[in-house]
Amino acid sequence: MLYSKMFIPTLKEAPADADTISAKYMIRAGMIRKVSSGLYEYLPLGFRVLKKVEKIIREELDAIGGQEISMPLILPKELWEETGRWKIYGKELFRLKDRKEADFCLSPTHEEPITDLARREIRSYRQLPVMFYQFGAKFRDEIRPRFGVMRAREFLMKDAYSFHADEQDLENYYSVIFEAYNRICKRCGFVFRPVEAASGAIGGSFSHEFMVLADTGEEEIAWCPCGYGANSEKAQCLPCENTKEALEPLQEISTPDIKTIDEVSGFLKIDAAKTIKSIFYLADAEPILVLTRGDTEINETKLASALNADGLVLLEENAVYKIAGAHFGSLGPINLKQKIKIIADLSIDGISNAAVGANKDGFHLKGANYGRDYKADMIADIRKVKRGDICPHCKKEKLQFSRGIEIGHTFKLGTKYSKAMGATFLSADGKENLMQMGCYGIGVSRILAAVIEQSSDENGIIWTKNTAPFEAIIIPINYAESKTKEITDSIYRELTQRGVDVLIDDREERAGIKFKDADLIGIPYRITVSEKTLLQGKVEFKERKNPKEKFELITPQEAVEKLCGRQG
Amino acid sequence: MLYSKMFIPTLKEAPADADTISAKYMIRAGMIRKVSSGLYEYLPLGFRVLKKVEKIIREELDAIGGQEISMPLILPKELWEETGRWKIYGKELFRLKDRKEADFCLSPTHEEPITDLARREIRSYRQLPVMFYQFGAKFRDEIRPRFGVMRAREFLMKDAYSFHADEQDLENYYSVIFEAYNRICKRCGFVFRPVEAASGAIGGSFSHEFMVLADTGEEEIAWCPCGYGANSEKAQCLPCENTKEALEPLQEISTPDIKTIDEVSGFLKIDAAKTIKSIFYLADAEPILVLTRGDTEINETKLASALNADGLVLLEENAVYKIAGAHFGSLGPINLKQKIKIIADLSIDGISNAAVGANKDGFHLKGANYGRDYKADMIADIRKVKRGDICPHCKKEKLQFSRGIEIGHTFKLGTKYSKAMGATFLSADGKENLMQMGCYGIGVSRILAAVIEQSSDENGIIWTKNTAPFEAIIIPINYAESKTKEITDSIYRELTQRGVDVLIDDREERAGIKFKDADLIGIPYRITVSEKTLLQGKVEFKERKNPKEKFELITPQEAVEKLCGRQG
Q1: At A51, which CATH number?
Q2: Is B36 close to A72, i.e. CB distance below 8 A?
């Protein structure tokens, strides 16, 4: 491909609203343009990368029996009402009416239509298992579209759905998908980690996110060299080590104006780990008291999941006063005015002689001991993971924390959708069973941004081999000069014949501009052809990722061999 | 690919609402399923055909310098207001609001956003010409979605847009696109004709439709063996041959209850070609009288175009009475009460002694002669083409009429959009000029239906070589039998290695079911492997298009060579 024949409108400056490295570079490199908030067009260079990523994903999914299909983007309300998601999705769902005033939405994901297809078409266990996938636009009316294509309102997604006769078969296939996702991430050249994740609006019994590590990532993950990894929202916490002491008597202490954990531990001269935090919630309209150790935070996702509650909100102070007999800052599990369900985090297990609010304004209790002075109705892992926590898997190493960009998410859905929509099949023994289901997404357009967040420098993008729009760029310093043109063309011809995707910068521009553009658009390998080096029969070969001064002078044939022989 | 691994839910019967051969067969062959009115999902077999067609189009457009991009499907109202199409599109446009109540539509086509891109990014003649294309969903809220995917509300389209520095360059490129479209149609295996067409809502100075000939087509085309072809809406009409006679005097005749042309010619015992039809319209709110020869019909598309009118409606009888002094059935160009613009079709040129309404209820005039008795303000080609008309190109042969399915449409837009949206560039001589523009669409999903409308029999689809989901199917009568399996697998291996796309029907089904399904899904070549014929070292080779009894017994190697050596 000739640079002059390709529409690559590079820019010296990114627009002011480009808020991440990837958004800046994708715009500056002429890959994308913004049409409206969260809506982007992909120009030829950006489109090529999309297609390269699509190809990697397609090959890996075809290899594990995936069948490519295409579902409509406009979907009728009725399907979404069957699962309740017409309501649950709220304002994130783009909704519209047709000329007959019938309600539709723009697909944010496709569980409902695919389950509808399955219940219509799959009647027998003989038709199972089956995995369908598609590449297509997804629409989510984000409150704050940002980070370029990373959090857009319309984006390209690969979504896949599998149906199985039983849970074991689903779990086996889940591992197969999991490995395919690992291969996809590797082929994209990512430093990444699959981590356990919360399932959110999609639901199901467990899920994994594929996280590309990048300091600019929106998500935080906790991981351990032993192999464990989880979204920090989801990461499991072990019981804390609490020092056992001889039980002291319960003692009321006047603590005027002492409210926060810091204030309590300072006033009483004790460690925050010797205090208990008491927080009142409304869980599906039932008031509850939640306890966790003073130096930890409650994780509401875990709490809701432990309670199997759909709605979880903080209880307001007036309602708390009626139950506890005290205001915020003096609350605790002892001497409540009303009996109420108490949920305790694992971290309070074994705290001896803790300090808690006295349920009497201006007073705390010292020497509170579980079992003797208070009890919980449920003890569960409901706190946030924190620095210093031990890995729940190997139980040895301290957890590490990194930021990441979620580019894929796999869900073991089980029967969530098949139950809601009545997707059944006749099993081998003639019984009507619910299909077991999994769903598996990859943010295709987001992958472009993720590569750049992980791989760029001050001069521009540094594409990985398999995601690059072109693997190599040949820069003739003066393409009009006959020897330069001859060598440039012959290198191009041979590389193309051997399957390498090459761009020739044939423009009549100064060498400096050509180098700058090549660096900005991030082509991994550069071959510079100049009259000067050709005098020695050599061309300049440089890897994009290496500094300016690190290049080699080699013969054109050596350059070709380097590109054809190299490993990804 | 193994049949058992592919999801092909064939049906014995098509659903009752499948209203064309292609809709019936696409559903019965398990290619598509309907999700809602005008909304379809493409199952694996249908999706494969989409991809084959997409590949043909992509190769042809890349070969003429097309650059593939992708534009959003949700588009902001503001762009559409600049060209007035936010209003013009009416109810066909799907409209929606985002969470901030801003207005958007779902793209029915992309002239506005691409022109917006061009005006933002193209500044100099050096960046021209350029052609962008994309494959993507298009949305049109049809009044009556029908004919399966042929007239759907969401469909897959390839749209392309080119920008040029001057009209000559646009016209040159238009020919290049025209040839590429011809090649695409040929590679799809179509019997087709490119015809001159009316430009409709897209606009521009001229356009061509690529029509696949099929009796079930929605459109009618007029064509001549000399090469001329046009949509019958657009087909040019020559002046009619009118017999010249000595002028008779104008004579009023009482014609009680004689109103239609048939009644007039019957009553007066003259040919309909000796009468004149007089019809009153409102053209952009101005009343006009339109005349055409009694045996012809007015073509409102041509009329609006001749008048350069946006709106054209019939004038209601009360208003007509005020102008003419008579009611419907007695109208004519002579003795009007009010002066009014008169437009005459070429067909009335040279009618001697015609009969016209007298503008007096119950009376007609005989002996009306143009020039002497009445005159028109404009004479133009404004009638519908009809059986018996002579080709306007060779002026010798009679026009032929065929029905067709429009699968592509090319438009020479000129400056229609660049003017409305201010898309200018600096020309070589430093002047600010408007870009010249063309746009070129292909209905990718519609091509699937068009192939089937043109090529099927009572047993199912007959795919053309390049559109077939698989080029060949191997049917082992009993795949469990070792010799059969060995030969089946070896034919499959060799064909696959030589680039032929093959399906093996490995199912444990009766041969009859396998043959029926192979016929229904329409695979062009079938190789049947049975123990019986293998005794003679032979397999059965049959073309789908041939009758049941027409097959050959040849060796497996001969079968392979036939498939690899054959011409498309």
Answers
A1: 3.30.930.10
A2: yes
In a domain, A465, yes or no: no
Question: Contact A280/A287 with Cβ under 8 angstroms?
Answer: yes
> Does residue A27 belong to any structural domain of this protein?
no
Does the residue A246 lie in any domain?
Answer: no
In a domain, B132, yes or no: yes
**What local confidence, expressed as pLDDT, does residue A204 receive?**
66
pLDDT digits (tens, 9 = 90+) for B465-518: 999 999 999 999 999 999 999 999 999 999 999 999 999 999 999 999 999 999
User: For an interface test with A, which of B37, B69, B80, B81 has the most A Cβ atoms less than 10 Å from its Cβ?
Assistant: B69
The confidence band for B365, taking pLDDT boundaries of 50, 70 and 90, is very high
Q: Which chain A residues touch B67 with a CB distance below 8 Å?
A: 6-7, 44
Interface of A with B in 144-173 (CB under 8 A): 153-154, 156
Domain count, chain A: 3
Provide the percentage of residues in chain A whose pLDDT is more than 90: 91
Residue span of the structural domain in which B416 resides:
13-72+107-236+401-452
In this structure, what CATH number is given to the domain that contains residue A279?
Answer: 3.90.960.10
> Given CB atoms, is A545 within the 8 Å cutoff of chain B?
no
- Examine the domain organization and report whether B343 and B277 are in the same domain: yes
Clarify whether residues B435 and B489 are in a common domain. no
Nearest by CB to A9, from B51, B104, B121: name it. Answer: B121
On chain A, the residues whose CB falls within 8 A of the CB of B6 are 67
Residue pair B303/B237 in contact by the 8 Å Cβ criterion: no
**Contact with chain A for residue B234, Cβ under 8 A:** no
pLDDT at A200 over 70: no
**Structure tokens of A292?**
């966790």
| Residues in contact with B461: Cβ distance below 8 Å, sequence separation at least 6, in sequence order | B25, B26, B29, B451, B452, B455, B520, B521, B522
User: How much is the pTM?
Assistant: 0.90
| Listed residues A452, A480, A511: the one ending a domain | A452
pLDDT digits (tens, 9 = 90+) for A407-433: 999 999 999 999 999 999 999 999 999
3-state secondary structure of A488: helix
Residue B557 confidence (pLDDT) above 80: yes
- In this complex, how many residue pairs, one in chain A and one in chain B, have their CB atoms less than 8 Å apart? 131
Residues B214 and B193: beta-carbon distance below 8 Å = no
The string of pLDDT tens digits covering residues A516-568 is 999 999 999 999 999 999 999 999 999 999 998 899 999 999 999 999 975 43
Contact A33 B120 (CB under 8 A): yes
Residues of B in contact with A10 (CB under 8 A): none
Do residues B447 and B320 both lie within one domain? no
- pLDDT at residue number A268: 93
CATH code of A483's domain: 3.40.50.800
Contacts of B74 in chain A (CB under 8 A): 39, 94, 106, 139, 153-154
How many other C-beta atoms are found inside a 10 Å radius of the C-beta of residue A257? 8
Is there a single domain that holds both residue B64 and residue B195? yes
The helix (run of H) or strand (run of E) holding residue B460 is: strand B460-461
Which residues neighbour A391 within 8 Å (Cβ) at sequence distance 6 or greater?
A224, A226, A228, A397, A398, A399
Q: Are residues A424 and A348 in the same domain?
A: no
Domain co-membership, B259 together with B303: yes
pLDDT value at A41 more than 70 = yes
Interface test with B, best of A40, A41, A71, A508 (most B CBs within 10 A): A41
- Would you call A75 and B106 a contact, using CB atoms and an 8 Å cutoff? no
The pLDDT, as a whole number, for residue A567 is 41
At residue A201, the pLDDT reads 59
Angle at B177 between CA B173 and CA B180, to 5 degrees: 140
DSSP A90: G
Helix, strand counts (H, E) of chain B: 15, 31
Instruction: Specify the pLDDT at position B305.
Output: 87
Task: Judge if B228 and B335 occupy the same domain.
Answer: no
A436 and A504 assigned to the same domain:
no
The interaxial angle of helices B556-565 and B482-497, nearest 10 deg, is 20
For chain B, positions 115-134, list CB contacts with chain A under 8 A: 116-117, 120-121, 127, 130, 132
